[in-house]
Each structure stands twice: as C-alpha cells, then as structure tokens.
Write the structure tokens for this entry.
Amino acid sequence: MSAAVQIPPMDARALRAAFGSFMTGVTVVTTRNRAGQAYGFTANSFTSVSLDPPLLLVCPGKFLSSYAEFEACDVFAVSILAEGQEEISNTFASFKGDRFARVETDDDLHGVPVIAGAVAVFSCQKQQVMEAGDHALLIGQVKHFHHSARRGLGYAGGKYFSLGLEQSAARAPKQGLKNVASAIIEQNGAVYLQRDAAGYFLPQVVVSRRGLLRDALQEHLATLELGARLAQVYSIFDQAATGEHHTCFRATTHGAVPREGAFVAVEDLARLDYAVPGQAATLARYATEYQTGLFGLFIGDADGGDIHYS
Ligand SMILES: Cc1cc2nc3c(=O)[nH]c(=O)nc-3n(C[C@H](O)[C@H](O)[C@H](O)COP(=O)(O)O)c2cc1C
C-alpha cells in the first residue's frame, strides 16, 4: 500500500505572483444587456483559440460585479489596448462609477461599446461559458474584427510596459552621463511640479544603472505619497550642460493632495520658469499634445530630436 502524499496548501499570494509573471497584453471586455446597460472589465486572460471557426476566450472572475451579465450575454466584445491606454485599463479594473463616461468608445455591429484607439477589436457571439473554479471561460465566436498597426500595451508582474517605447528607452546613453528619471504626473488636467530657487521641476531621481530607471522612479514617487502610477516613456534627452541623460515617464493619479509641490494646470505649463531646461521643452510639448490626446515619444538632445508617434 502506498502512503498518501501530503500536498501542502498553496500560498494564494505566491500563486498569483507566479501566474502574474506570464507577460500578456491587456484587453477590455464589454457587453450590453437587453435594457441597454453597458458593462466592462479589464482582462489579461485573453487567448486566441481557433481560426476555423474563429474562437477566442477570456476568463471573467465570479467576483466581478458584472459576472451575471457576461454569463447571460448573447454578444460581447474584446478590445486589445494600445500603448498609452493604461488609464483605460485602470478605469475598467478599479473605477466604481460609470466607466464608459470616462473613455471614448464606439458601438460595434452588435451595439456593444468598444474602446476607441484599441489595437484590435473582436466582436463576438457568445458560444459557451464553462465554469472553472473562481473564474469562467467565456468563449466567443468572432463575428467581426478590426486591427491596426498600433503597438499593444503589455502587462507583467503587476506592471504595465510598452515594448516599442521601452526598447527606444533602453538605448545606451552617451558615456559618462548621469541617468535621471523623471515623471509627468497628471491629475484632472494638471501636472505635479516641485519648485526651488532655480525654478519648477518634475519629480526626479538619479539612477545608478539604466536598467533600474522605472523601479527607482516608482520608489521615489512612492515617497511623495501621491499614489502615482507610472505609464510609458514620454521623452528621452541628453542635457550636455549638466552631464545628464534624462528619461521622462508619464504617470497618472487620482485624488492626490500633495504634501509639498503642487498640481499646475496643463495650460499654464508653457509659461513657467524651469530649473531643468529640457523639462521646459518636454512640458511645452506635453501641454500641446494634451489637447489632442496624441502623445509622442521624443528622443534627442538640447539641439533637437525626433518625436515618434506609435
Ligand atoms: C491587467 C489586469 C488584468 C485583469 N484580468 C482579469 C481577468 O482576466 N479576469 C477577471 O475577472 N478580472 C481581471 N482583472 C480584474 C478586473 O478588471 C477587476 O476585478 C474588475 O474590473 C472589477 O470590476 P467590478 O468592480 O465591476 O467587480 C484584471 C485587472 C487588471 C488590472
């Protein structure tokens, strides 16, 4: 008789972290019920399943407030988010009010709202819902889709990443320059700035190794207690005068009340005096691009450079 093998209980947190180490994209899954009410949640459990017939799946958790709607729906849609759409992901993951009032959507052929500017959108007829533990497998047959050349938003280890932009950011800086990482933290049309005798400046930190830029900046932002979440790289520039190589990220927050420094309206950014000259140019561009919502990535130096739009 073989002895029963005792399997130790699993540490749910560790399991979640291990599952989360699998790099994915980010989608928003949406539906609309017969009464016309729209529902949506952020999901990275998207998987393409079959080409013939065209099938895909996502895994809604039974904990979702909208779970019953997805379980009962006839049609749903999956929007694959693009670089720069982190805020939309956050909205559909945690905002408790009307999520659709915060983002631009279009209605698909079934009248289901889909995310404007997404990399790809799949409009599906529900084929099957299979229960699987605390989640379900929602399988859809693709009835219509569209796809653009935009780059997708990435997600790994609980953080967003933007492959195209990060690759550019990983460019080796010129020898001997100090690496400085800074953040444009935006909240309700205003940007967080600090100030000293030399002028205004973005929260920034000097980083010993380029590989640590994002983590070091995130740690620095945590000390400001603004609840800021880093998004994609916005500007990379050398500042020969100070011997610095700057990498500036975008970031967002909600409801933050700064202990020091202040949020300055985006339209006022271009007329302030800045302590860091490169940040003046970066924020002037930010103020212009904020009006259109189309943000590029600048790579260059004090004499000029290129703006890359994905
Ligand atoms: C990147 C990311 C991926 C997620 N993936 C899933 C998923 O695949 N399935 C799921 O049920 N929830 C997922 N969530 C969590 C849900 O989006 C979140 O619990 C949901 O929007 C809460 O909605 P509710 O307030 O209506 O219950 C994900 C969240 C994030 C940030």
Q: What stands out?
A: The chain has a mean pLDDT of 90.
